[in-house]
Amino acid sequence: MTKARLRAEALTLAYDRRVVVRDLDVQITDGSFTVIVGPNACGKSTLLRSLARVLKPHSGTVLLDGRAIGSYPSRQVAKQLGMLPQSPVAPGGTVVEELVARGRFAHQRLVRQWSAEDEAAVADAMRQTEVTELADRFVDELSGGQRQRVWLAMALAQQTSILLLDEPTTFLDLSHQFEVLDLCAELHEQGRTIVAVLHDLNQACRYATELIVMHDGAVVAQGAPAEVMSAELVESVFGMPCRVMTDPETDTPMVVPADRQRRRAARGGAAAGVVDRATV
After folding, report:
1. What residue spans define the domains of the chain?
2. In terms of CATH, what superfamily is 6-228?
3. What is the pLDDT of residues 144-169, one digit of tens each?
């Protein structure tokens, strides 16, 4: 059986009384680059927040190394698992290097203050994300893409073996999207377990070693992209007719949407089905 340090069992997640995810089991394979995909409001980010211990389960358990993640001290979790949330906001007046250095919080103690190791970790994280030249700039004066790379640098400075990324390509232009995903792939090759929420199915198939496909708060498919991705799956989950071909650059699945007329006809059929059911 494939080892999974991070997993969820019978997980139900809710905001107030609104249940988003119900009775879900999922395993994050060690050493994988796992990408979670699915339509808006299907529970992708909610699941990721629960895996990161940001959101407390309504019922069920998230396990880290076989133990309920909520039973660990916060610093211990922070040494094993890093999280980059959607659209994070830095306090006003924070400069880039200061924000990246906050990734070293879990490594600080009363008897162990800032060290050469911390300095090296911050410098390396900034170099990898190409924000070194921004070190003295205020975070709130940067472009959206620059801010996203700075937040990623902070997560890298944490030096965890598991990294959770909620839509890490948000605000980035196409070139920088691929730079961030290339960096994630390199971190994965160095031995880190990466879990990311992405919207772009073709990017997900290109970079993931494993896909988790969600719909209406449930996992409907999980496995290698070549085994999971199909036109039938895309249409059933996203309601979009398409063809799934082979990417000529990477030999990974590539989703090609149907033309406008076919997609319009599919939407019309779905709407008619809703009317028919409503009149029964």
Report:
1. 6-228, 230-280
2. P-loop containing nucleotide triphosphate hydrolases (3.40.50.300)
3. 888 888 999 999 999 999 999 999 98
* pTM given for the model: 0.88
Which two structure tokens, joined as six digits, stand for 23?
A: 């009775």
